[in-house]
């Protein structure tokens, strides 16, 4: 197995058969598919989360902050995408598998912050109609109602996943309620409008690094478990993205300066943006090349700092090695 060591400002210690080009402080690296990835600076890797995680060293990152695709919510049109599994348990099993590999990459005193949303059963409709107050919810494919649940049932995905991760060996330490003061309206009249999601705090070990003083409330109290943070739209992504204000306390409490933060579902790059602001390094993994391009543009807008971009077929991206 080969190892590639990525360094500062375009400096690369390499072995053989690597194409490298620096574009707007972006270094694109074409590597052997079996090569181990050993970054020493921020890295953006295009590929599926499990495969890339398998190539990262054990006990390497201090913290994981991520929000995987929600089940049955959106079709990204990408082969191998997570969230369109035919059965809910398949979705849960797939995420448990990915986070098991992420736990290997996490340092023994590391912390995982996991944001996950919920949904309702489809009533075995193969589509989701647009909500007149939220047209983006429309979808032309939708999983059937899971066995054992009824039409109009709340799926309970966050806790199903949290308990499955706990059973797989994670320590479940806190359930944070992300309250959204500006939540999207819903055209429902037979239940309250949802304005929250969960952020679970999980750890690899019984003892771990946690700096509570870094995130004390304004009055000096220990941080509470209800965080009121507005959603934040990002026009290029066509929907609300992971807000930086939700990510900041996760990173501040669980890392020190220059530590690595991993996001295996990098999306439009919010975790990377916050890492740059807080002087942390990041490893972002994203399957969707459209979001890779959005993330790179956002990260370049933040700092004129080198980011290594790893792709097995770099010529397919607008950020490509010649």
What does this structure look like?
This protein is of the alpha/beta class. The protein has a domain at 58-258: Vaccinia Virus protein VP39 (Rossmann fold). The chain is 21% helix and 25% strand. It has 6 helices and 16 strands. The strands form 3 sheets. It has an 11-stranded mixed beta sheet. Helix 5 runs parallel beside helix 6. The relative contact order is 0.20.
Features:
322 residues; Rossmann fold; eleven-stranded mixed β-sheet; disordered N terminus; disordered C terminus
Please give the structural blueprint.
Elements: E1 3-6, E2 12-13, E3 19-23, E4 26-30, E5 36-39, E6 43-46, H1 49-53, E7 61-66, H2 88-105, E8 106-116, H3 157-167, E9 171-179, E10 196-203, E11 226-228, E12 232-234, E13 239-241, H4 244-254, E14 260-263, H5 270-277, E15 281-286, H6 289-302, E16 307-310
Parallel strand pairs: 1-5, 4-16, 6-15, 6-16, 7-8, 7-14, 9-11, 14-15
Antiparallel strand pairs: 1-2, 3-4, 8-10, 9-10, 12-13
Helix pairs in contact: 2-3, 4-5, 5-6
| Total of helices | 6
Low-confidence sequence ranges: 1-25, 314-322
**Can you give the mean pLDDT?**
82
CATH architecture descriptor text of the domain at 58-258: 3-Layer(aba) Sandwich
CATH fold assignment of the domain at 58-258: Rossmann fold
Q: What portion of the residues fall into strands of 2 or more residues?
A: 25-35%
Radius of gyration: 20 Å
According to CATH, the homologous superfamily of the domain at 58-258 is Vaccinia Virus protein VP39
CATH class of the domain at 58-258: Alpha Beta
Q: What can be said about the biggest beta sheet? A: 11 strands, mixed
Q: Compute the number of strand runs.
A: 16
SSE-based structural type: alpha/beta
Helix and strand element order: EEEEEEHEHEHEEEEEHEHEHE
Instruction: Quote the distance from N terminus to C terminus.
Output: 25 Å
Main-sheet strand order equals: 3-4-16-6-15-14-7-8-10-9-11
